[in-house]
Amino acid sequence: MADWLFENPTASSNGTMAVLDEASTETKGKSPESWLREFSVATGLPCLCLDRDLGCIVGQSHPEMLPFVSTELLQRLDEIESLEVRRVTEQLTTFAIPARANDRLIITGYVLSTRGARPAELLFSAVEADWGETRLNSWLSSIPVCDAKILQRLLDSVGREFHQQRREGELQLELNSLSQQIDYTYEEISLLHRLTRNLQLSRPSKELADMCVRGLYSLIECVGTVICIQDSSNEMHFLTQGRMPFDQSGLARLLARFEQHDWNKPLVKNKLQHTLLGADFPGLKNIVIVPIGEPQHRRGWIISTNLRGGRDFGTIEANLIASIATILGTHARNIELYDEHDDLLVGFVRSLVSTLDAKDPYTRGHSERVALVARCLGRQMQIDTNDLDDIYLSGLLHDIGKVGVDDRILAKPGQLTEEEFLQVQQHPMIGFQILQQLKSLQAILPGVRHHHEAFNGKGYPDKLKGDEIPLMARIIAVADSYDAMVSDRPYRKGMPLEKLEDIFRRGANEQWDPRVIDAFFVVKNEIQKLCESYSPKRGNLLREKQSSRSGIITGRTLLQR
Length: 561
Ligand SMILES: [Fe+2]
Fold this sequence. Notes:
This protein is an alpha+beta fold. It folds into three domains: 9-171, Beta-Lactamase; 198-335, Beta-Lactamase, CATH 3.30.450.40; 360-558, Hypothetical protein af1432, CATH 1.10.3210.10. Helices cover 48% and strands 11% of the residues. It has 20 helices and ten strands. The protein has helices spanning 9-14, 25-28, 32-43, 71-75, 120-128, 133-142, 148-196, 205-220, 248-257, 276-280, 315-359, 366-380, 385-396, 407-411, 418-424, 427-435, 445-450, 471-486, 497-507, 514-533; strands spanning 48-51, 56-60, 84-87, 92-98, 105-112, 222-230, 236-242, 267-269, 287-292, 300-307. The protein has a five-stranded antiparallel β-sheet, covered by helices on one side. It has a five-stranded antiparallel β-sheet with strand order 7-6-10-9-8, with helices on one face. Strand 9 and strand 10 form a beta hairpin. Helix 7 (148-196) packs parallel to helix 11, helix 12 (366-380) packs across helix 20 and helix 13 crosses helix 18 (471-486). Fe (ii) ion (FE2) binds next to loops.
């Protein structure tokens, strides 16, 4: 009954029944017969359906109903805009109402004023319809008896009821639609939120794309979604959810068809069944295609096909897919930039370490051993993994300032003069000044600048004391001293471990941080093996490439874990 609408405000206020909204999807699916039945059941009145254009009856609520329509009504069919109740004679009252707004169908009927009445109009109509006396009498006895005013009130009352039901139906539809929109928006936000939480550079493009294709497939309700994406090693991945109407080669053919498309916006194609594209790709009904990445950094494509429920793809689906493509493209590009930056940094640090090794070949490998020992000490002191990476790198470059010290002083086998020693003491600050220009290496600067500070404040260059000295530097100081004392030099043999341990014990709290010395004694065997197994001939300890990105651009890709 929600099919009926009393759309005229005046009609609503004065109770005049009006018509049905054309936009009602429920009504569009109903036949005039079903309207007649519903109206007849609600009012208890037999009724007919008239076609304004044809000017004749096209339906009736009761098979045995006498098909009477007053001549006056037939002449005024085009004028009926709302409910009309007319007393045709003393004995006969008729009513008429448009079935729907701006509709050509009119519902009409009649009642008797008194029981036993035999209106001449009905008698004539019976003769025309070739009804016999018995049939007519039977029909007349079954016609409702009703006063015109009461009929008006009855139809108004039913009209209001229909209107109310109609409004409730509309509101329910609106509510359902809003609920669906809220559900969709919530799911969309959840998906985007989930993705942004997983944008670490350590997450491979394929893994993120897999998350995307699953999310899109469940959200968009299409028959198939595919993401093809090229990872950082240039391997192409095809990640599919649902059923696609083409395989990988078909996808290539499909994309070739749209080479001229302006890919700054998604490509949306609907109703493809009877098109050339639909003929070339059987089963393809509609499609959205969005590229991943900018044209100069194209990383792949997202394609959704065949929206369920016979619906067309629209802005909502296209925008969502475009958002996901932007996330994937940005993530892939960031990985690319990270790798490029990494390559530069690796090359730079290699150059620095090689330069130092070339300048002072006798201490070749010292930097790398200090880095290894420092990291071992840091791990024993339960320092965070990322900080251990910084300690390692700082150990690797701690003496880089020696490139600014006279070669003859560095290579001098005997005792240094005071002036020479002052020049050597410059190397932490020289190293600091070289590296401080590099944003990526900021985290390692404390180890470079302060690895010659002494715990009692008698070191250099800043004479820091105790905890004023950055922990990184206190750790590197122990690692540096260890390697310097145990390593052989052309002019002396390495110190026996027993003697070194004695020096460390005596120097704790004076030269070195006692907590680092404590850590040394716990892992001294591990450190000894580490240094004994290390050989510069095995090559540089710098890694070629780091498979897992920390997400922060530093020199961590240089690190051997
Ligand atoms: Fe040094």
